[in-house]
Design brief:
The complex is a heterodimer.
Chain A (H helix, E strand, L loop, with lengths): L1 H7 L3 H26 L3 H24 L7 H22 L4 H21 L6 H8 L7 H20 L1 H9 L1 H6 L4 H23 L4 H13 L5 H24 L5 H30 L1
Helix pairs in contact in A: 1-12, 2-7, 2-10, 2-11, 2-12, 3-4, 3-5, 3-10, 3-11, 4-5, 4-10, 7-10, 10-11, 11-12, 11-13, 12-13
Chain B lengths: L1 H5 L5 E10 L2 E11 L4 E5 L6 H9 L6 E6 L11 E4 L13 H6 L14 H13 L15 H13 L5 E5 L7 H14 L4 E5 L12 E6 L1 E6 L5 H8 L24
Parallel strand pairs in B: 3-7, 3-8, 5-6, 6-7
Antiparallel strand pairs in B: 1-2, 1-4, 8-9
The chains are: A mainly alpha, B alpha/beta.
Chain lengths: ~280, ~260
């Protein structure tokens, strides 16, 4: 661990990695708290897996057809927003079952991504970094896009805090207070999509669902308001990211996987001890 | 026509209302009007259309035929002036939210305000909590409250917007009889300045505070409570209901010592 903190001063790629991790954690805390309380973590999962299709297609067009203006990260933004809009529209008006559509997007997005990646010359090293993240490979150009997305998500997510809280807690009452519930649900899904894209850079497509839910779930044990939950979740997410990075550095383990393991252990420990304390209290009564 | 003009000050005016779910009629030719400051208990068998009628009045459903006016306007236009209290047990008790945060939701007006609630909003929310004697619980988490306390918080949330009409969906369901009496006392107090309409399960309609009973079973008819007879009740519920006369001097008299004349 100490080796990592010594190296941060020397290597730019570690500084980029840390900056990405911290920025991602702030969005993760704010939007993750909405996702957990509104119980749509499976929607976040579907969006993140669908993103592989967008990244694969963007890279294919870039490499094979020379679309140099398009990179995989931009492909991720477009496909994530598309998935959010499709899921939102289905849940609002279609007669189709929402969970079926979510499952379909989840798998079809991955399938499309795999096909395009197979058709693109190059190493399948890229596939692994899309799936499990490679925070050490974040480029300065990526950092600017991540920072812009982060700013956008935070400004919108906090400006409409009261409206989003009402929609998450009691949709019917929110509608009666003149809030366009459908529009705000769609907005929440789009914010979730952008947060997913930011987090894909840190832990990859498959592990995003854990990083978006676990910090908020742990924070939920210690907080009684949504905004406190957001602050604690952002702090925990930053802690998991930095600890995961530092622990993985010396033995050269995959950083994204280590971040998730740290988050998972914390979640398990907190949930089990909370359950134990609860039982002790009930027994004492 | 003349009747239209005479009813123009009605708080709720329904004319020939018809509503069906997927072709199955729930309400047919429902016509009634409710006068200002009335205290109405909506009764009827399950599946008879009580909840549907409530949702029509709130503008959450639209009638296939007929018209509905609330305070002289369409239900959607008049929403800012209507307070709504759902059943308390539908909420997620793990949601990170305090009593005051729930009540502040009553101060929302679309997206006109961004960011934090104003001082006025905070004061109005605390005043509403005071009215239901829950102001000392403002910073508690909702899971720390009893069912009756949670129901009071929801009444406070509806009050925070200063409504002219209060609609409640079975406010006394799933709470004990002492709490039922306390809730009825709160609603009676509110009835001094606003019209109250509540959907009730059967037991509550013997309350002497209720001024009118709106019987809903496919059709609807409204009766002042002092004119309600056994035949009317059998008419609504069918013959298998036995009518028992309750000649208690006060609603809460049979609760034992809790009566306060």
């Amino acid at each position: 661990m100490s080796e990592f903190f010594g190296a941060v001063g020397q290597f730019a790629f570690l500084q980029y990695a840390l900056a990405t991790g911290i920025m991602a954690s702030i969005a993760c805390g704010v939007i993750g708290s909405y996702v957990v309380t509104r119980r749509i973590s499976y929607v976040a999962g579907a969006i993140s897996h669908f993103v592989l299709g967008g990244m694969g297609l963007a890279r294919y067009l870039n490499v094979v057809h020379g679309w140099s203006f398009l990179n995989p990260l931009q492909g991720a933004v477009i496909s994530a927003l598309a998935a959010a809009v499709i899921i939102g529209m289905v849940s609002m008006r279609a007669k189709e079952r929402e969970d079926t559509v979510i499952g379909a997007l989840w798998a079809v997005g991955m399938a499309v991504g795999i096909i395009f990646i197979a058709r693109t010359p190059g190493y399948n090293q890229d596939l692994m970094s899309y799936l499990f993240g490679n925070i050490l490979m974040v480029s300065p150009a990526d950092i600017y896009l991540i920072a812009a997305l982060d700013g956008l998500v935070l400004i919108v997510g906090l400006a409409f805090y009261n409206q989003l809280l009402a929609v998450c807690f009691d949709e019917e009452f929110a509608r009666l207070r003149g809030i366009n519930v459908e529009l705000f649900y769609l907005l929440l899904l789009c914010l979730t999509a952008l947060t997913v894209v930011i987090l894909v850079n840190v832990v990859g497509i498959i592990l995003v669902i854990a990083l978006i839910t676990l910090p908020a779930a742990v924070a939920g044990h210690f907080t009684n308001t949504l905004w406190k939950m957001m602050i604690v979740a952002a702090g925990l997410s930053a802690l998991f990211t930095v600890v995961g990075l530092a622990v993985s550095y010396s033995p050269n383990l995959p950083a994204g996987a280590m971040i998730i393991v740290v988050a998972g252990i914390t979640y398990l420990a907190v949930t089990l001890s909370a359950g134990y304390i609860h039982r002790r209290r009930s027994a004492a009564r | 026509m003349n009747t239209k003009a005479a009813d123009s000050d009605a708080v709720i005016q329904c004319d020939g209302l018809h509503f069906a779910y997927n072709g199955d009629p729930v309400l047919t030719d429902v016509t009634f009007s409710i006068a200002p400051r009335d205290f109405v208990s909506v009764v009827g068998p399950n599946g008879g259309g009580k909840t549907t009628l409530l949702r029509l009045i709130l503008g959450l459903l639209n009638p296939q035929r007929g018209t509905i006016h609330v305070l002289g306007k369409s239900p959607e236009q008049v929403r800012p002036l209507v307070g709504y209290v759902p059943q308390h047990f539908i909420f997620d008790m793990h949601f990170p939210i305090r009593v005051i945060d729930v009540v502040l939701m009553g101060r929302l007006r679309g997206v006109s305000r961004l960011g934090r609630y104003s001082k006025d909003d905070q004061q109005a929310a605390l005043a509403a909590l005071g009215e239901v004697e829950m102001d000392s619980f403002a910073r508690r988490h909702i899971a720390e409250l009893s069912g009756g306390q949670r129901q009071r918080v929801l009444i406070a949330r509806a009050l925070a917007s200063d409504p002219k009409l209060m609609l409640l969906d079975e406010p006394t369901a799933h709470v004990d009889t002492v709490t039922q009496t306390e809730l009825m006392n709160i609603l009676t107090g509110l009835n001094q300045r606003m019209t109250v309409l509540m959907v009730t399960h059967d037991a509550a309609f013997v309350s002497p505070y209720v001024k009118s009973v709106l019987c809903v079973n496919r059709k609807a008819s409204i009766h002042p409570t002092d004119q309600l007879t056994g035949e009317m009740i059998m008419d609504i519920y069918g013959d298998d209901v036995r009518y028992v006369r309750h000649d208690h001097p006060r609603w809460d008299a049979h609760q034992g010592e809790s009566s306060h004349e």
